[in-house]
Every structure is written in C-alpha cells, then in structure tokens.
C-alpha cells in the first residue's frame, strides 16, 4: 500500500480504483425490465432455425414461378392457408394456394404474388397480372435469419430491447448476466437536513444524497439510501456497518481535514483498508478510497460539485467494470471550443461545460458559467466536463480540448 496521504494524479487514482474492482459472479436472471442494460455473461445459441419453415412475406397467392413466364395468367386455387396453419396440398402445374403473411409455403410453390396483383374469378379461380415472378419472390427461406446452433449473441453484449427479442426467439426467458452492483449511499454532516424540511439558520438540505443515488442508477447500479449520518462516531458506526454490506459504499462529506471530518477514521476503525485520500484535482481534492472484503468504499467530498465530479471520474468507471463492461470510461471526446475561455488553476481542473454538435456533426463545447465547487446550480447548464491542466491559461475559439461526457445514460 502506497502512502495514503500522498497526493495522487487523477489517472493514477483511477487506475488504483480499477485495480480493486472484483467483478460480481454472473447470475441467471429473468429477462424482465430489471435486466435492461445488464451485460450478458454467456454466449447464447439458437435452439432452432428461424424462420422454422419457409414463410410467406405477403398476403397473396403461392404459385410456381414457372407457371407465369409472362407474369399473367389464370390459376386454380386449391387451398387457403393462414398464419399458424399448415398447408395440406401440394401446388401442381396451373394451381395456386391463397396464403397470408407469416403462413408456411405449400410444397411445390416457390413464389408469392401479392394480393394487389390478383383478381378473384370465382371460388376456385384467380387471375394474376404482375411482372414475371422470380423463384423465391416474397418468400423467406427456412433458417434465413438464424440456424439452430448459431451463436446469436455473444457474452459481453449489453441487453437492449433488440437482445430481449432475440433471446425470447431462441427460447430464453433467463440468461446469465452480470448483476447490477448494490450501492449504498450515506450523506454525512451535522448541518444536513432532509429535502422536505425547512433548514434552520445553520442548516442546509441534503442535495448530495438524491444526486448521488441518481448518479448510481444512471451508472447501472442499484441505489440504496441509508439517509443522513451526524458527525459523531456513534452515529456513523452503525450506518457504516450497514453500508459495508453493499458491493459499493458511498459517503458524502466528512472526508477533509476539518475537526469533525471523522469518516476516514471511522472507516479504518471498522476495518476498511485505505488506498488513497487526496487527489491533485479541482474540484474535489479530498477523496477517500478504500476496500473492505468485497466492498469498494468511496468517501466523496461534501461540496456538491466535488461529489458529482468525483463520482463521474472514479465511481462511475468502477460501477461500469462491476457491471461487466470492458470499457470503464469516463467517455472522452476531442471537441472544438465554441468560445474563448480563460482559467487560472493551481491544479488540473474539471470545469462544467456544454457539449453539442454543430450542423456539420462536429463536436463543439463551451465552458458553463460556474463559480466553483459549491455551485451546484451551475451544473444545470452542463452535460460535460472540460479537462483543463493547471496554470494561468487562455484558449481561443476553435482550439481543441478534451471533454468528458457525463449525460449519456450508458
Ligand atoms: P464537508 O466535506 O463535510 O466538509 O462538506 C463540505 C461542504 O459541502 C460544506 O459546505 C457542506 O455544508 C456541504 N455539504 C456536505 N454535505 C452535503 C450534502 N449532503 N448536501 C449538500 N451540501 C453538502
Ligand atoms: Mg461535513
């Protein structure tokens, strides 16, 4: 273990976090809405040919293409087949079967003439006026979509509605997936009250709790709120004990150098092994990271924007990996600056920004108005973070910058 009080660079701290990710064992879960977005942990094979029979793709008449070399003629209708039924008769020379979309093709027929090109003559005759049919026209061959034994979805794929459809098609209502990690959240602070309360003269409402719980859900975790802890050892102890049962435990506040910043000390007392505590970045210098058995523990700074940014840079990548994603992120794009911008920072800084695409599809970004880590409201006008080096620097419109995207769901 490196010296915990050492000031780490962001990239170094991110790799320390990722080194401590212990993937959750894959579980066979039902394929319902709760599985949406989870990552498949097995290769899935088809148990059948799809379609399982040669299938009509149009309402019309199943014919022998050879009977209609000019595309026109009169045929004898021998049978009617709707979807879900099996044709009983073979189509011979001069014959046709009335057929509906989705129904199996009768033996002998090799094409379907769409009903709009056909005129019923009497109960047994049809007149066709169409272009000359090609064998296979409007017919889906058996196994065209997939063959029995084909690997239709590989392990590592994220479950979207399309995957649900294909999994059901091959007979699956469960699949082996990486389960969503359970993430417990505690907000600490003697001054913090619930959103529904009117704060007293020295109190503020718990903005961090709901924000972090929502960040957890967006990152694919299952959020579990443990409420507010006071800055007292006896109050922190039971809540931390509870939080350590989760896969990931997040605390906000109480991690810097103040008199009542008890979080790191109480975590250690309960057996959490610290890995780092300080990062050279703005906002959010104090960020505690430790582990306890299988649980990853993050003490996020209390400042709301610091908490938000530290989550995106360190917690979200860990959650992505726990969810089975190969790419931990955070997702970066190179973007042109849409507006001159200057900044003076003594540490690498993550500045809220608005990223969008110009009409030609190229990325453009502008820094949001923001006065620093207590300015949570400034984040309302942001969907990204500018990654700025330290120094007294100026950028001109049109220059390229690295931007971290935070708003996309996956
Ligand atoms: P701390 O890290 O506990 O020293 O808190 C730093 C700053 O963040 C203080 O101004 C706190 O009032 C504020 N803060 C801490 N926790 C929260 C919270 N849950 N919601 C909103 N602000 C908070
Ligand atoms: Mg505090």
Condensed summary:
The strands form eight sheets. This protein has a seven-stranded mixed beta sheet with strand order 1-20-21-22-19-15-18, sandwiched between helices.
Description:
The chain is 16% helix and 34% strand. The chain is built from six helices and 29 strands. Helix 1 (10-19) crosses helix 6 and helix 3 (208-218) packs parallel to helix 6 (304-322). The longest helix has 19 residues, at 304-322. Bound molecules: adenosine monophosphate and magnesium ion.
Describe the secondary-structure layout:
Blueprint (H helix, E strand, L loop, with lengths): L6 E2 L1 H10 L7 E4 L8 E2 L3 E2 L9 E2 L3 E4 L8 E10 L13 E5 L11 E4 L3 E5 L2 E5 L9 E2 L10 E3 L7 H9 L4 E5 L3 E7 L3 E2 L10 E2 L2 H11 L3 E8 L3 H11 L4 E5 L10 H7 L3 E7 L6 E7 L2 E6 L3 H19 L9 E6 L3 E5 L3 E9 L5 E5 L16 E5 L2 E5 L4 E6 L5
Parallel strand pairs: 1-20, 7-8, 15-18, 15-19, 16-17, 19-22, 23-26
Antiparallel strand pairs: 2-14, 3-14, 4-13, 5-12, 6-8, 6-9, 7-11, 10-11, 20-21, 21-22, 23-29, 24-28, 25-26, 25-27, 27-29
Helix pairs in contact: 1-6, 3-6
